[in-house]
TrEMBL record:
Protein name: Putative peroxidase-related enzyme
Keyword Magnesium: no
Keywords: Oxidoreductase, Peroxidase
Organism: Humibacillus xanthopallidus
Pfam families reported for this sequence: CMD
InterPro entries named in the record: AhpD-like (IPR029032), AhpD_core (IPR004675), CMD-like (IPR003779), Uncharacterised_peroxidase-rel (IPR010195)
GO MF entry, a single one: peroxiredoxin activity
Domain of life per record: Bacteria
Length: 191
């Protein structure tokens, strides 16, 4: 087996090799979480590109938006599960557990959202996220109707599509470069 401390297929940059904005983000993460997410270290190989990704990711996932934090993390976990992205499934599974206070349901969503006994609104969002992830060329205007039927408005639908798109991008980067989730994620949001 490989090096258990390795978190990416690529060598990681040192503090002196990254832009100041990356170093500040690492410091803020250490203060807030007690660790630096491995994705922050691994993607910083190209520091300016990482910061551009982070700006959009942060806007979609961490700021006040049209969907709740739990909704966005639900979408993140479903997309990551469908894509079999270990890093995002584990890290966003931790966030979903924390936002919902329901570790069992979050774990079920990560395995198979259909078995998680989700309310109609959440199930419609998951079904759309799965279709957009697996069959983007087959998505039609008619696929929006189930979302509207459960009360999502146009702002929420656009945000849903953007979150699904962001996680498809992030999953591909994380998987292609072998990002390993931080061990801390496995215990987060569990009783």
């Amino acid at each position: 087996m490989g090096d258990p401390t390795r978190i990416s297929y690529l060598p990681l940059p040192d503090r002196d090799d990254v832009p100041d904005g990356v170093a500040r983000l690492w410091e803020k993460s250490q203060e807030a979480f007690g660790f630096v997410p491995n994705v922050f270290r691994a993607q910083a190989v190209n520091g300016e590109q990482f910061l551009a990704w982070w700006g959009y990711f942060n806007l979609l996932v961490n700021k006040e938006g049209h969907l709740s934090n739990a909704d966005r993390e639900l979408l993140a976990v479903v997309v990551s599960s469908v894509n079999r992205c270990t890093y995002c499934e584990i890290s966003h599974g931790a966030a979903l557990r924390a936002f919902t206070d329901d570790a069992v349901r979050a774990d079920l969503v990560a395995s198979n959202w259909r078995q998680a006994d989700l309310p109609d609104r959440e199930a419609a969002m998951c079904a759309y996220a799965e279709k957009l992830t697996l069959h983007p060329a087959e998505v039609t205007e008619g696929d929006l109707e189930p979302l509207r039927a459960v009360g999502l408005d146009d702002h929420q639908i656009v945000e849903l599509v953007q979150v699904v798109g962001m996680f498809n991008l992030t999953n591909r980067v994380s998987t292609a470069l072998g990002f390993v989730p931080n061990p801390e994620y496995h215990q987060m949001g569990r009783p």
